Amino acid sequence: MTYPKRVRLVEMGPRDGLQNEAKPVPVETKVALIDALSAAGHVAVEAGSFVSPKWVPQMASTDEVMARIQRKPGVSYPVLVPNKQGMIGAIESRCEEIAIFTAASEAFCRKNTNCSIDESFERFAPVIEAAQKHGMKVRGYVSTVIACPYDGKVAPAKVAEVSDRLFRMGCYEVSLGDTIGVGTPAECVAMIDAVAEKVPRDKIAAHFHDTWGQSLANIMAVMERGIAVFDTSVAGLGGCPYAKGASGNVGTEDVLYLLNGLGIAHGVDLDAVAKAGRDICAALGREPASKVAQAMKAKVAAQAAA
Ligand code: HMG
Ligand code: MG
C-alpha cells in the first residue's frame, strides 16, 4: 500500500465545528480555540464565515474573531464567503484566504445558500475577482459529494463537473465534502477518481463528516489514491445547519493518531490539540465526539486521580 509521506490538515473546529452550536459562543472562547490550534502546529485553521447572521447566527462574530486572533506566520485562517457582501467583510477583516462553497446537488445548494448551483457560480465570479485583486487565496468546497439529504445519491460525474468549475475558476484546492457522512471507502474512491480526471490529485482535499463512522476508513482509502489533504475538526465538533442530523467532521485527534501510527508526517502536536479539544468541550458543556479525544481525556483524568 502506498500512502503519502506527508499530509496537510485543515482544522475545521472553529468554523464547521461551531457553526451549528445553538448557544452563542463568546468571541474570546473562539479566539482561544483558534490560537490554541495554531500553537499546536496546524498550518490552516478555518476561522469563521462571512455569511448571513440570520442563516448562521453563530458565525456573526467572525469580524471580531479575525481582529483578535494572533495571526501566526505561515498559518492560514480561511473564512467562508458566499457572495460579494461576504467578501466585503473578508476584505475589511484583512483575511488572506477565503473559501467559496457550493454543492453537487441542487436541493442542498438551495437549502444552504438559497440559490441553484449555477447561481452560486454567478455569485462567485465577483468574489474571485476581488480575491485576486487583494492577493487572497481561494479554496473551494463541494458539498454532498456522496449523497444529498434531500436528493439522495449523487453521481461522481456531477461532483467532478462542479469541482472542475471551481478549479478552473481559480481555486487553488477543491475540498470534497461528504456533508452527511454516509460514504464508504469504495464510494469515496470512485468519487475521488472521477474528480481526479478533471482536477489534479494534489489539488484535492477530502472533507469527511463522521455520521456513519466511516471517516477513518475513507481517509485510508483515498490516501491510497494520492489524496494528502484532510479537513478535520478538533474533538469531532460540528455539523451543518442545513444537513439535519449530520455530525461533525472526523476528529482531528483521531486522524493524528492514525497518521502517527502509519508514520505519516503532519507537523501537529496531538497532545496540544487534545488539550484544545478538552477546553472547548468544557466551554460548550459537551463531551468530545472523537474516540481518541475521549480516550486521552480518560487517561488524563486517571493520571490526575493517581
Ligand atoms: P439570501 O437570503 O439569498 O441573500 O441568502 P440575499 O442576497 O437575498 O440577502 C438577504 C439578506 O441577507 C439581506 O439582509 C442581506 O444583507 C443579508 P436583510 O436585508 O434581510 O437584513 N446577506 C448577508 N449578510 C451577511 N453576510 C453576507 C450576506 N449576504 C446576504 N455574506 C446567503 C444567501 C448565502 C447569504 C445565505 O443563504 C447564507 O448566509 N447561507 C449560509 C450558508 C452557510 O454558512 N452554511 C454552512 C456552511 S457550508 C458547510 O457547512 C458545508 C461545508 O462544511 C462542506 C460540507 O461539509 O459539505 C463547507
Ligand atoms: Mg462540513
Structural description of this entry:
With 306 residues, the chain is α/β, with parallel strands linked by helices. The chain has one domain: Aldolase class I (TIM Barrel). 44% of the residues lie in helices and 13% in strands. It has 12 helices and 10 strands. The strands form 2 sheets. An 8-stranded parallel beta sheet has the order 1-10-9-8-5-4-3-2. A two-stranded antiparallel ribbon has the order 6-7. Helix 2 (27-39) crosses helix 3, helix 6 (117-133) runs parallel beside helix 7 and helix 7 packs across helix 8. The protein is globular. Magnesium ion is lined by residues 16, 177, 179, 207, 209, 240, 249.
Largest β-sheet summary: 8 strands, parallel
Overall structural class, as computed from helix and strand content, comes to alpha/beta
Write down how many β-strands occur, each being a DSSP E stretch of 2 or more residues.
10
Rg over C-alpha atoms, rounded to the nearest angstrom? 18 Å
User: Under the CATH scheme, which architecture would be assigned?
Assistant: Alpha-Beta Barrel
Mean pLDDT: 97
Using the coordinates above, name the CATH class: Alpha Beta
The general outline is: globular
Low-confidence stretches: none
As for the number of domains, it is: 1
**Total count of helical runs of at least 4 residues:** 12
Beta-strand residue percentage? 5-15%
What is the CATH superfamily? Aldolase class I
Q: N-to-C terminal Cα separation, in Å?
A: 42 Å
